[in-house]
Amino acid sequence: MIDAFLAHDLPAVEEAIRKAAAAEVMPRFRQLADHEVDQKSGPHDLVTDADRLAERHLTASLTRLLPGSAVVGEEAVHADPEVYGALRGDAPVWIVDPVDGTRQFVEGDPHFCTLVALALHGEILASWTYAPALDVLATAVRGQGAHVNGERIHSGSPRPGAELRVATAHPLYTSEEDRRYLSRLDVPGVAPRPCGSAGLEYLRVARGEMDALAFTWPSAWDHAAGLLLVGEAGGAQSTVDRVPFRIDRDNALPFAVGRDEATAVRVRELLRGED
Description:
Keywords: Magnesium, Metal-binding. It is an enzyme of class 3 (hydrolase). This is inositol-phosphate phosphatase. It comes from Streptomyces racemochromogenes. InterPro entries: Inositol_monophosphatase-like (IPR000760), Inositol_monophosphatase_CS (IPR020550). The chain has about 280 residues and is α+β, with helices and mostly antiparallel strands. The chain has nine helices and 14 strands. The strands form three sheets. Strands 3-4-5-6-7-8-9 form a seven-stranded mixed sheet, sandwiched between helices. Strand 7 (about 135-140) and strand 8 form a beta hairpin.
């Protein structure tokens, strides 16, 4: 069933994502009223009506397209953490972040996106990264490459001797222990900076505009779409335990993502505290 779906129904997924953004996200961009923005765990962890309604829209449309599938969405998991367990089940799972970069969205910055990935038994099969305010849609299908607005992309490799550009977990969302790990990237030859929307940072790596990422949190909705996108563009990733990050298990953190394997390994070893 899943093979047939991947072969024939992916355009319908793209249409569903575009419709959800057009109906629930873009009408609220730079139009949010105070009552449409709430805090979750703290003042920097925001949720808006656009997040909630877009996830509801996508949950209905995606499960209609693939009967029997489950949805692990950021807002659903916030309401009921048990929902996350579907990643370890036998049904196909849609992994949804309705507005990745909510802080940017609230501030009127166009650098936010909707992230959707389809997984089965922990393997990410297809992904969509849609930045509606930028008119950018990045897609990836396992074994079929990565594309942006229909054009094939390749991550390439950093220029020999050039400073590595690394986006890291933002200080607003990191613990003291996280910051100790990330401080190991403050070395000659590496230029770290705080990340914005995780989905768009993955896209930058897939396009060769950034060299690497270093993340300290495991939420599948932030990483699933981007991990497949980077992997299909030619990149690589690894946790500090020197094994790949997977969405269906607990992972050692932080983990590194690179334009190529050598870059991912270099960043990973720095995070481990090794040369």
